[in-house]
Each structure stands twice: as structure tokens, then as C-alpha cells.
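hi! just following up on the protien thing from before. the input was this:
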Amino acid sequence: MTKVLIIASDANAGIELSQMIGQAAGDFQVCGILYKISEARQWLTDNNAPQLIFCDIELEDGLGFEIFRNLPVAAPIIFCTDCQEYALKAFENNGIDYLLKPLNPDRLEKSLKKFTRLKELFGEENTSYSKRISNVASGMNSYKSSMLVYFQDKIIPVSLDKLDYIYYNNYTVNVHTQNAQYETRDTLNNIITTLNPRDFFRANRQFILHRKSVTSIQQYFGRKLLVGTSFPTPEPVIISKANATEFLKWVEGLNHEKELVANY
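and the predicted 3d structure came back as:
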């Protein structure tokens, strides 16, 4: 029995995919349906890894790629999405196939057969296959050391070591360093997938923070967190209740040199 984990954009999508997998040929069993990055990361941390994962790319709280960053998950992944722009990133993240929505039962069955063939090719036990897939993916995954930004009439590289934060407002994304501000034409969702998670955290819909910039953390309304930074920001940096624990672990594990005030 091949255990399958579904990470879906909403309940309807999850139920529909589960039913389609149940009707497909082969010995597949859905072991869970999840809907958010935070709960998917927690599930994968607390449970034995499934043998196959279906993951929607566009989730309520970000891109599905973020689930697997810094998590030792070797299970192959079939990504699902409404558009084709994420195809390359899918195959850079343990992806073995890429399904466009609305899902087609015949196309889904081909993906499951592809998984079965690969599993058989690398051995009956999925461990060997998973290790090979993981090695390939880790070799392809590399994080940016600089970012191309727009300054006046030029495109220039900015070292990520100099970056304090990235801020979205009114359909514009700006990159802020200690001494300057630049514009980028990319989205926060795309940018965060290219940054090293040891150094950067997606605080909310407006901010990506560099860890060197965090100076304090205070309790905020509704069990949210208010982040103090070493630079002025256009608006307060608020961490939601759902992301608070992950943020605290990120700061605690990777930013020991800061003196943090965490009243949470």
C-alpha cells in the first residue's frame, strides 16, 4: 500500500483529488489532507514520511515549495497548479511531475504510473528511490547570493548580505538596504523561494526579513508577535498567531547573538 499525503489549496480541491486517487488504478491510500504550509510542516515533522506527496503550489499562506525547505523530506512530489510558470521550481523540489488544473483523471493516472515505474526502477523499497531523488534535488537547489534590482535606468546586483528587508505595498516590491531602496519586478512569493531560509523569513504578506535585523519580539494582540528591527519600517512588522511558533524557532535557532525579548 502506497501512502499518499495531499496538501491542497482548499477542502474541495483536497476531497476531489482524494477521490480521484481512490478511483485510479494501483494500490494507493490517502493518509492525510492538509491545507496550509504551517500545518504541513508540522505534520511532516511529527509523522512518518508518506511515500508520495501531492502538493498544490498556491496555498492560502504562500507557495507550497516553502513546506519542504529545511525539512528532510525525501518523498517524491507531484505538484498541482493553475499555471505553468512554476514548472522548473517543481522539478527542483523533489518534483516528479507537474499537473495543471483542473485535474484530469487520465492525466492523474499517468502521473501515478510514472511514480510506480520510478519506484520499480530504483528498487521495490521506496528508500533507495527517495535518496536518489533527494540527492538530485539538493544538487539543483541553490540559493541566491545577490538580487537584481532596478535603480534609475539601470539593473544592478545587490548583495543579500546588505539587505535588511523586502517590502510589498500598493503592487510594488521594494528591496531595502541600510543606505538605499531599490525596486524589483518580482513578487514576494517568488523571491522567498530563492532565499536561504537560515537568513530570511516571510513575516507576512508585506515583509521578508533578514535575521540580522531582528532586535526584539513582543507579544501583540491576538497572540500575534510584534517584531522590533534595527531599521525603521513603513508599518509595524506583525507575525500572525499561526506563524509565531515557527518564527520564534527560526530566531532562536539561527540568531543566537541577538538579545531577544519574547513575551509569548
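Helices lie at 11-23, 37-46, 87-91, 105-121, 126-140, 188-192, 241-254.
Residues 105-121 form the longest helix (17 residues).
cheers
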